[in-house]
Each structure stands twice: as structure tokens, then as C-alpha cells.
Amino acid sequence: MANNKNIAVKVASRTQLNEDIVRLTLVALDGSPLPAWEPGAHIELQLSTGNGTDEDAIMLRHYSLCGDYNCTDNWEVAVLREQSGRGGSAYIHEKLKEGDVVKVSGPRNHFPFKPGKKVLFIAGGIGITPILPMIQQAEAEGIDWRLVYLSRERSRLVYLDRFEEYDSKRIRLNGDVEDGFCDLVELLSTCDSETTVYSCGPKPLLDALENLHREQKEAGWSLTIERFTAKESALDQSGSFDVVINSTGKRVHIPEGQSILETLRDQGIRITCSCRDGVCGTCETGVLAGLPDHRDSVLSEEERADNDYMMVCVSRALSEELVLDL
Ligand code: FES
After folding, report:
1. FAD-binding FR-type domain: from which residue to which, for each copy (predicted)?
2. Which of 180, 204, 227 delimits the end of a domain?
């Protein structure tokens, strides 16, 4: 469930899990319990660049909660240093220290865990983070679960200590270098209509799973994924249309090649955003009339069909006009 309240939290500890991944534990500044959350939830860190006070001086970054979901004393996140990122992960790795205070909003959950009888988790790299509390819940509920945890090299796999309490037969670790690439077709051939596949990881992995899900429709397994980067359709900005700002009646033409978000910003209409890739949910905007062309990775099939909200950083319009709740 969305929770947009800002909370001040303190970095209680930071631990380097490997050369690229740092784990942070966060506690409320006043020591009070933190809001409860469910597996799949993430929080939004508001990182100040120190360059002025307007919203461009704040980087909003989203990280999956990966600790014990029964614990409200602290939150835990793990941050991968993105080599070609936009500065958020570099800031956390290089500047954020124990004792620093950060504003946080959330938790929000766009990757809810609703398991069937059997679950296959497929985690790629840092994509293990939202999966960890899902495994905790699956184990607690006696669900028949398996995990395939993929990485370039086995030495880059993190959080292996969390698996010690589980039956090792449920867990398969796969380093491309040591074990070769995981054969996804073979892996998914073990799934049936009682199996839900939950996956988080790099784009090629998730694209491959979505393709196989389409190809193996008759097998009946279902797929739920969380993306950290834009899917292909989010990059396509073809077609032009108009947006009407409901509160003022102002009409803005959205040209081909430019997003609603960028065009409105150019007109002085600011909408809070973060990823600009349709994966975080920050720019969610109400739709009062017209038909959005959803290109995000956040809304569920049902939410898309309702057409009540859209992510204006990537989504476009199927109608000539959209009236936005702005
Ligand atoms: S800014 Fe992240 S979904 Fe639009």
C-alpha cells in the first residue's frame, strides 16, 4: 500500500557486502517503530546533493526492503553501485556515512507477493533483495518454494548467510563463469499451472522470462517481475497528443519524441519524478479522461485496465487527448 509520508531516518550501520554492494540499516531518528511493510516493498531515499535547495538538488532513489518484514526497529536495504548510473548509488557508496540522516518516504509495494501452491524465485544479482523477504514468508507459510540465484561469478553472490536456515535442496546458486549460463527453458519446463515465478534482476533476464512466459502459455505458470530499468516499450515515444491540466484547463501538446513529464516541465509544470524509466512509481498521475497508452513496469494488468493512473515519464496516449488530475 502506498505511504507517502516522509520520515527522517538515521544510517545505523553500513556494511560492504562485496566491492559493489553496500548494505544499510536505517532507524527512525526519534527511535520510534518504523512503518510496517510486506515483502516486495521498497522505500524512496531523498538524497541531498548539497547543490541548492530546489527539487533538482534532491535525488530520489528507490531500494527494496530486504530485512525481516516482522521487524519495525530498522529497515535494511542493499545498494549496488551503478557504473553508468545517475549519481544516487555513487553518492551512497562514497558519501553516506553511519549516523547521517536521510529523509525517506514509503514503504510502497509494486511487487506484492501473492504466492500460489508453488513458487520459483529467479533472482539476478542485486535482484535478490526483494526476493529475500518473500522467501522468509514462503518458508513461514509452508509454501513449496525454490530459488535460482544468478550472477556473473559466484563470488559476487551476497546474503548467502540468510540461506543457512533453509533446506539447501531448495536453493541453486549459479555463477555464469563457474557454472555456465542458466538454461531458462529447461528451468521453466519444471513449472506447472500451480507455480508462480517471481523474478527481479537485469533487463535481459526479465525480457527472456517474459518471452518464455508468452511462448509457454499452455504450461499455465504465472510470472510476476520487478524491473530496475525501462522495458523496450518505455523507450518508444512515437505519436503526438494533447494533455489538459484539469485544475487550470491549460492544454499542452506532447510532441513525438518527448515525454509528458519533460514537456510539462518545459511549461513550468513540475511533477515529482525519480527513475524517468517507468519503474519506480514516483510520477504516478491521475487520469480523469482519455485513454493512456501504458508503457511503465509499475501498474498491474488490472490497474492498467482501470486507466485511473499513469506514469507520465514514459506512458503516452491512445486517445487524442488526456485530462490529467493536476
Ligand atoms: S519517475 Fe519513476 S515511474 Fe516515472
Report:
1. 4-114
2. 227
Q: Which of 185, 209, 227 is the last residue of a domain?
A: 227
We report the CATH number of the domain holding residue 141 as 3.40.50.80
Expressed in angstroms and rounded, the spacing between residue 283 Cα and the centre of ligand 1 is 5
Measured CA to CA, the distance from residue 208 to residue 322 in angstroms comes to 33
Determine the structural domain holding residue 252 and report its residue range: 233-324
Report CA(310)–ligand 1 centroid distance (Å).
10
Instruction: Give the CA diameter of the chain.
Output: 61
pLDDT tens digits, one per residue of 223-265: 999 998 888 888 888 999 999 999 999 999 999 999 999 999 9
- How many Cβ atoms from other residues are within 10 Å of residue 34's Cβ? 19
297 C-beta closer than 6 A to ligand 1: no
217 and 123, same structural domain?
yes
Q: Is residue 306 part of a domain?
A: yes
* CA distance linking residue 119 with residue 40, whole number of Å: 14
- The cell 515515444 sits on which residue? 237
187 ligand 1 Cβ < 6 A: no
Nearest ligand 1 atom, CA 283: 4
The owner of cell 548510473 is 85
Report d(CA 39, CA 33) in Å as an integer. Answer: 18
pTM for this structure?
0.89
Q: How crowded is residue 21: how many other Cβ atoms within 10 Å of its Cβ?
A: 21
